[in-house]
């Protein structure tokens, strides 16, 4: 089929099944012959960060104020305040206190809210306890820069001041590691 046949698109349905199939095939062939283009992969969308309208000075100030408010709220949420009405067992944060105080992280990762206290504990162990311990210790920027020289001090501080609890086999393993470091 070399030329476009208008009647292939505008023909009526046939009553016989084989004739109807042939009509559909002819319509498809007419469309392919007319277009001459095969359908390929979808094209890539332009990057979203190409903002044609940069923020005005006032909008930047509002964005900065909003960032400070979000960080302040997150810091308030990880500071344990134990009272008679709310004992320590009731306080279970879902935001990492070390990530909040880390200015080198993005805002999104600093105020990330974990689904459960257990998922926060897994993050805390993987990101802050299991990596090699720095010689200078770790600084808690939420508590005015309190320096925690050892993993055991960090675990105690995490539980007492921020409600992040690490128990069971992990706690025993870290205690054994600490004992071995004292002996060496």
Describe this structure in words.
The chain is mainly alpha-helical and 184 residues long. It has 2 domains: 30 residues; 99 residues, no CATH class. Helices cover 51% and strands 3% of the residues. The protein has 8 helices and 2 strands. Strands 1-2 form a two-stranded antiparallel ribbon. The longest helix has 22 residues. It starts with 5 loop residues before the first helix and ends with a helix.
- Write down the domain tally: 2
Widest beta sheet: strand line-up: 1-2
Percent range for β-strand residues = under 5%
Give the number of DSSP strands.
2
Order of helices and strands: HHHHHHEEHH
Q: State the helicity in percent bands.
A: 40-55%
The radius of gyration is 32 Å
Can you describe this structure in just a few lines?
By secondary structure, this protein is mostly helical.
Jot down its keywords.
184 residues; mainly alpha; 2 domains; two-stranded antiparallel ribbon; 8 helices; 2 strands; 51% helix
List the helices and strands and how they pair.
Blueprint: H1 6-10, H2 17-35, H3 57-78, H4 97-100, H5 107-110, H6 117-129, E1 138-140, E2 146-148, H7 151-162, H8 169-183
Antiparallel strand pairs: 1-2
